[in-house]
Amino acid sequence: MNKTLMAASLAVVLGACNSSKKSDVADAAPNPFFSEYTTPFGVPPFDKIEVAHYKPAFEKGMAEHKKEIDVLVNNSEKPTFENTIVALDQAGELLNKVMYAFSGQSSVNTTDEIQELEQELYPILSAHSDDISLNPALFARVKAVYDNQASLNLDKEQKKLLEETYKGFVRSGANLDADKQAKLRELNEQISVLELTFGQNTLKETNAFKLVIDNKEDLSGLPETLIAAAAETATADSMEGKWVFTLHNPSVMPFLQYADNRALREKMFNAYVCRGNNNNANDNKEVIKKLVTARLEKAKLLGYEDFAAYVLEENMAKNEKNVYQLLDQLWKPALAKANEELADINAEIKKEGGNFKAEAWDWRYYADKARRAKFDLDENEVRPYLELNHVREGAFYVANKLYGITFTEITDIPKPDPDAYAFECKDKDGSPLGVLYMDFYTRPGKSGGAWCGGYRSQTYKDGKKITPVVTTVFNFSKPAAGQPALLSTDEAETVFHEFGHALHALFGDVHYYGVADVPRDFVELPSQVNEHWAFEPEVLKVYAKHYKTGEVIPQELVDKIVKSGKYGQGFATVEYLASSLLDMDYHVMKEIPADLDIEKYEGKAMYGRGLPTQIAPRYWGTYFGHTMEGGYTAGYYSYIWAEVLDADAFEAYKETGDIFNQEVAAKFRQYVLTPGGIDDAMDMYTNFRGKEPSIEPLLKNRGLK
Q: Which domains are delineated in the chain?
C-alpha cells in the first residue's frame, strides 16, 4: 500500500498500545509522538503512550502532511521522479508513525474510549486521504512524470513506484469530474465508518456471550486445561466456583470438539454463528447491506461493473472468472470428501446408540471420535508435546536451518502488552533484520483470529536501511496460573503460519513504501508454505517435547499425526470455500436489491450450492470480518489461491530430498521474500520455481485427489 495516498486506512491491523492508564495523564506528560523514539531499536514507547496523545498527534500529523503536499505541489521546478514521486512516497512521516501505534490499539487492547475515538477519527482521516488522492495539481505533477517516463533513466524499482503511484491516483478517482469526486468522498467516508462499525459490533457480540456452568457433570469430556482456563475466567468475572466459556476461539472450538453435553454444544454453536444476527444494537445485517451497496456504487463510479472487478484488477487472479474457476474446481471433490466424513460421523452416533442424525453442533465432536477410531489418535495425547514456547522455538529452528537467521529474546524493551514477547532477529552474517513481537493470549479487548503486522516498515532513509518492527498476534487461551500453554495441532500450525508472514516482513528489502506490498492473493504464500515444516517428523523431533518430562514425541505418535493429517479436510475445505464463495457473491452483484434479506440471500447462496446443513461456513456474513472490515474484501479466496503456490513451492524442497535445502531456501528468499512488490507476482514465483505452479500438490495435500 502506498502509505502517502492511503494514510487514512486503518483497516490493516498493525499492533497495540497500552491504554490502561487514565488519559488525563497526557495533559502533563509530553506527547511521545512529537519526538524521536529513544527506546531500544526505536520501538514505540508503549509505557508512555496514552489514549489522549492520539488525537493531537493525528491532527499534527495531518497538518504536517498537508504542508508537505503543498510544498510539493507549489514547487516551481519541473516535475521529476525525485521531487514528485519520491517526495510523495516519503511524505506523512508523523502521520504514519501515529497510525502504526493507534491502529493496533483498536485491534488488541481496545476500550470504549478507543472505540469512540475511532468513530471520531475515521471520517477525518478518510477526508484527509481524499484531499491528497483527489488533489488535481498533485495529480498533474504525477502524470507529467508518468507521461515522460520514457526519457527517464529509472531502474526497475523506480519504474514500479512510478507505475503504482500513478495507478493509485487513477484508482482513487483522480480522473473523475468534480461532482463524481464529491460523491466518491461521501462513499469513502461511509465505507470507512461502516467497516469500523462492523468490527466493533462483532467484538461486542463475541464478548457479550458467556456460557456459565455450575454443575461439574456438565464438564464431562472437556480437557483439564480447558476446564482450568474456564475456572479462571469465572473467577475473573466474580463467579468463583463456576466455569465460564466464551465465544473466543480457544474456548468455543475445543468446547464443541470435546463437550459430551449435546445441549450445551448446541447452545455454544448457535451463539457463535448468530453473532451480529441477534436483532440488537450490535446487529450487522443492515451494516452489510449498506456496506455492499456503497462499495458497488464506488466501483461503478470508478468505471467498474462491480466491486470485485475493482479489487481483483490488482490481484494475481485478475478477474472473478478465474476466482470462481478455482473455487468451483475444489468445491465438488471437497463436498464428496465431507460427505464421506459425515457418514463416519453418523456411524459414530449410531455406534453410541444415538437415535438422531448429526447436526452442525455435532460435527467436531463426532469427527474427533471418528478420527480416534480410524487412527487411534487423541489430540489430547499430542497437546503435552506442543507447549507454546517449544512450538515457538520450533519455528525459530526451521528459520535458522533454512536461512541461518537467529532470534534472541529482548527483555528490556517496551512491549505492546505485558504478556507479549520481543526478539531481536539477525541475519546469518550478524547484521540486524529487525524486531519481532509475539502476542499470544486472548483478552476481551482483542479482535479474534491471528495476524501479522508491524510498528515500523522496512525502508531506507538517507541511504541507510531502516529495519522493520514486526508483530505477530494470536488468540490462544492464557493458561491457568502455574500451568503451561498447551496448543492444539491447529494452533501450533498457526504459530508457523504467522511466523511465515513475519519472515516476509523481516526479509523485505525495498527503498520505497509504494513498492513494499504484494497482491492480496500472493501475500499468504510465505505464511502458508511455512506451515509445511510444522509437522514434518524431522522438525517434530526437535521441538515437540513433553512439557513435564522433556521426552521427545514418540515416533508412534508422529506416525499417527502424519497418517491422520488429511482426515477432516472435507469439512475444513468446505467450510472455507463456502465463506470464500459468499465473499465473492456479495461483491460480484451488479445491483443491490432495496429489500435485500441477508439471511435469505446467504442461505440460498450456500445451500443452493449443496452445502450440507451440518457444515456452517467458516464465517456467515454477520461476523465475517475478513471481508466486511476491508482486509480481504473480494479476497478471502486468497488463502486457497496461495495454497496452490505454497503446496507447489514445498515440492521444490521435497524434490531435492532435503526439506532444509539451503539452495532452494536462498532462491525463495531472493525471489519471493525480499523484493516486496517490485516484480509481478507470478514472475516472482516462476523466478523461484522455474515454472508456473501446479494444482496437483494442493489436491494431494488436502486428500481431494
A: 209-273 (no CATH), 383-564 (1.10.1370.40)
